[in-house]
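Loading example: each entry is read as two labelled lines plus one structure line.
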Amino acid sequence: MSVIIILLIASISVAGIFLAAFIWSVKNGQMDDDYSPPRRILFDDTPSPQIKKPN
Amino acid sequence: LYVFILAASMSISTSKQLECYHCGDNCTNSAIKIGDNYFCCEGCKLVYTILQQNNLCNYYQLNTNPGIQLKKKLREDQFLFLDDKSIQQKIIHFQNKDETHVQLYLPQIHCSSCLYLLENLHRLHSSIISSTVNFPRKEVSIVFLHKEISLRKIAELLTSIGYEPYMSLKDLGTEKKSFSKTMTYQLGVAGFCFANIMLMSFPEYLGLSETEKNLQSIFRVLNIILALPVLLYSAQPFFESAWKALRHKFLNIDLPVALAILITFCRSMYEVINGISAGYFDSMTGIVFFMLAGRVLQNKTHQQLSFDRDYTSYFPMAITVIENNIETPVALPDIKVNNTLLIHHEELIPADGILTKGKALIDYSFVTGESEPVKKEIGELVYAGGKQTGSNIEILTIKEVAQSYLTNLWNNNHTNRKNSTTHSFTDVLSKYFTWVVLALALTGSLYWSLIDTHKAWNVITTVLIVACPCALLLSSSFTNGNILRILSRNYLYLRNAQTIEDIAAINHIVFDKTGTLTSTMHREVEFHGSSLSSYQKEMIAALAAQSTHPLSKAIAKQFGQPNKLAVHQFHEIPGRGIEGRINNDLVVLGSSPLLSHHQNNHQTRVHAVINHQYAGYFSFHNKYRDELHPMIKKLQQQFQLSVVSGDTNAEKENLQQLFGKQANLLFQQQPHQKLNYIQALQQRGYTVMMIGDGLNDAGALRQSNTGIAVTEDTNYFTPASDAIVKASHLYMLPKFIQLCRANRQIIIASFVLSIVYNVIGLFFALQGVLSPLIAAILMPASSISILLLTFGCSNLVARQLRL
């Protein structure tokens, strides 16, 4: 029986992690733009001659 | 006068047409080329050169002809106002000592090439650190080092490659409202709790042995814990809406829903605490989850569209003020009475004033709908909202921006905003539904209280739980959501679900003429005058091809031939005309002030003079949209039609023929007259749909029961309305209306189905034959079957209509 309780805790916490991940992704704006990311990944990454990094 | 229609005589074989490598427009001059790539104008060629130098030619590989034609040249001081610190502060999101983050709205964004180019801005200028595009919002966020590049320079850089940032007075105002994510969170939480409660309810349904009583109570407690966030957080929209409705003393659909959620929860708590059963937490969370999903679908906003534009979206952010001979850009709200404003070519007049310098030729088409520019002399009054065409003028303001004629027009409209609170069809249905359910519960419990008092309490709660109106709510929100989706796939974007019902109810349609029935993009060109030799035609076309003015382009398009004559000493006088030498022949094209011929103008005309000899003039007709005729024919059978136009009645006969004798045609209508006409129709008992495009229709669009704004391009700016339709799809209007009418029938059908479910459920529930397991399976199954019905029906109707 105690096994079931351990499993229960495990399953709910896993589901909880997914819920947290969902909320984080919505908050982070990952659901806002469904057009750019799948195309962005296809662009060739030709490095530009000079990229200045801020200090 | 010998008149001939060029369109007929000059139909040029299109097979030879060259397409501009940059923008895809027809090339009228084959001399503009780099390698094998031809360009329609120097502007396009310049952009190509910039991209080529920076190794960004991938831009052209991703899509064919992705470029944006430069409509007008960048004026040197166009973005001067961005150097102003106080204006900068309003636009900049974040700034530290090195970096500045800014978000700019670029309405031109349309494809993956745009994405590629705009995210590689750092290659065009090394001081731009990064740029990220938000595609649906058509915004680019740019991070740059402000010590090395100014905001103004960035705006100029973007403009030079065809992406002119759009900045309006509105951006100076309050914070932009972002799309609320609350309901998405609520949906996520409800989904999480619903799934876990289902998981933990199964052992109960399948039967636990007596030895595992401990486990049973753990499951029940966990269910309560999981149901709490649903009740307290996810179900909030229903409680809020129900409470709001109650305070306004009417019953809406959310009241029985809120009641059902609350009662289910209380009853379940009571049963769990007394150890009677596991309660109905699974049903409760399921209801909330499904209904929230329906709402999210229905409320899915078209982020790139704005239905609530007011004049501030049209006005520029700043204007040049001349004080003591010094020109300074001033933010629009800071303009005072008695300021001298400098208005450039193609710039909007932001405040009422008196013309003090220059010759004004003001295009009021946006305000009045009149297609002809109005001439004004020094000392005359000019109103806000007009666009100066021609050289620079100076005006002395007599009113502040907020008190101008146009602004007042807007505010007047505001007070006329429809205040008849139309109750939606589902609200009406649900009102009856609520009364029936409440009556059923009360009579049931009364009946049982005479026989068995214990059962009375039982009956009240069972009826409310089983007869939960969720099916009704589900069917309406999912049907509405799906119809909205189908319509937007066909380029009709509705403000909200209520608009579907509004469209279904209309019986009178009022059209605006210019821009709605006619297209502003395509013009028919007609030449009046002595007959031209083919060489003369070529010369005129060659000259016209040099200019980006829409009229010049129209002429070049009709005369144009791939092999162009070379033009020398080309000279353009903004708003007046163009001149140039072709093989020692001087050709001049222009409006009458430049040529001083035929001053008396009623129509837009371009006059042609070759070697100081007046050759004749071109007149332009707005073309009626394609497939307008069949659309009107279809609409005639069902609706009363009217046309209200701000233009002259030159087209009256044509229109009367098109619309039939019954149609009412009104011309030279001021914006407020249009509004009054709609009002008069409404008083006569009509439910009116207004279809218009400009700010001059704004009042009528608001006053009408359904206002639809027509736009050539959804990036353009449309007045506030209930719906936006892409001009190329306006002809589908009869189908759109039919679909909206079908919406109601689908909702009724699924409602009937849900009542059948409810009756069966009640019947068995009251007799105590329904086992909890079957109930638990039936509950989601019935919901899903209703969803399938609504989706299936609406898609079927759409397919029948070929939408």
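Confidence is low (pLDDT under 50) at residues 49-55 of chain A.
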